[in-house]
Amino acid sequence: MYTELEAYIKSEVDIKQSELKKIITHFTPKNTVRNEMLCNIGQVCKHFYFIKKGCLRLYEIDAKGNDITGYFALENSIISANTSFMLQKPSRDCLVSLEPSELLVISRDNFYKLINTIPQFATVYHKFIEFAFIHSQMRIYSFLGMEGIDKLKWVMEHEPKLLSRISSKAVASYLGMTNSTLSKLRSKL
Amino acid sequence: MYTELEAYIKSEVDIKQSELKKIITHFTPKNTVRNEMLCNIGQVCKHFYFIKKGCLRLYEIDAKGNDITGYFALENSIISANTSFMLQKPSRDCLVSLEPSELLVISRDNFYKLINTIPQFATVYHKFIEFAFIHSQMRIYSFLGMEGIDKLKWVMEHEPKLLSRISSKAVASYLGMTNSTLSKLRSKL
DNA sequence: TAAAAAAGTTGTCATAAGACAATGTTTTAA
DNA sequence: TTAAAACATTGTCTTATGACAACTTTTTTA
């Protein structure tokens, strides 16, 4: 049940088995269906998720009604409606499972209990935020200046899993272009 | 000399005066001239900066030779060539002072010594990364979908200091457009 | 399994923004 | 203080991309 989560934590920090057990007992399993909403706009996000299987997407809906993807998370990674989870303010993002997924959930209260009592868990979270920041910066650098065709080539090279796994529509919203533009660019390659 | 830094830390966490003193003794003053390079491409960033006065800019140079701003930092904030500082890998960013600036510098070794011995300092850093992440996500959401004119209005509303303080050229590189486009958009308002 | 819905493709047209260049303005340094 | 450099503005032309629509394909669900 928890082997993937254990492996994830061990890959991030050195930790004694006893403390690892203490961590995982605070997670409970949760299965989702396709397009299940884990945090909706306006809600204050109270949970953090580990993805055993499946795929989650964090996105915002802009003024024109189009959506923009902030983040995709695949197997063996952790995610939440980050901004809302951090600030405990109503979320501007939606967090949904793109596929039927197997998750492990921890409440925010337990999450912070662990952060404050198990330094290695604090480190796991710390690394998560650092990575999330670095990834966001990379996207800004990569997508703000590039033309569409180069953004597409960029994901093909750096995040090929997204293209094989995720709908074109969602990928387009990640690249900051319309689905029709993405479709035309694909045919040009 | 250190009053601004003290005020900054106290605004982020509750801390005893004795520990505050312990922190600030690890910072040393450094004054820069305009366009002074604090971390260049290829260098591994070994320092973290508090800005007493002035303004720093973090940017990358893309394939076409244009530059893209990842981050501006003004008075009373902290910054580094974040990605390189975190990963200790050669930087893809440049960190420069746009104006003659008064900085307080701490070495990475001392920085981590403080992180590991003074929990409040760890919290200050933790909050910094959270903020940096949230800010980056906001930029992705705001700039990836918007048209130029809306991006301009967005900064005018949310980060007006940038427009009064920073060269058009640098602002354009922050908004992901050319300087001539920014200039034309300005005249449309 | 069939009907409905969603997603993807492709075409036309309009437009925002880039490239480049000419010119004016401000800043920097000798 | 002045020459040089950097920055900013504005114009023309070109092009990438969005909007919209028609159509096809795939997926969902009853």
Q: What is the structure about, briefly put?
A:
2 copies of one chain form a homodimer. Chain A has a domain at 3-114: Jelly Rolls (Sandwich). With 189 residues, chain A is of the alpha+beta class.
List the helices and strands and how they pair.
2 copies of one chain form a homodimer.
Chain A: H1 3-12, H2 17-24, E1 28-32, E2 36-39, E3 47-53, E4 56-61, E5 67-73, E6 77-79, H3 82-87, E7 93-97, E8 101-107, H4 108-117, H5 119-145, H6 148-158, H7 160-165, H8 168-175, H9 179-188
Antiparallel strand pairs in A: 1-8, 2-7, 3-6, 3-8, 4-5, 4-7
Chain B binds a DNA duplex (30 and 30 nucleotides) through helix 9.
Protein name (chains A, B): Crp/Fnr family transcriptional regulator
InterPro entries (chains A, B): cNMP-bd_dom (IPR000595), cNMP-bd_dom_sf (IPR018490), RmlC-like_jellyroll (IPR014710)
Domain Cyclic nucleotide-binding (chains A, B): 14-115
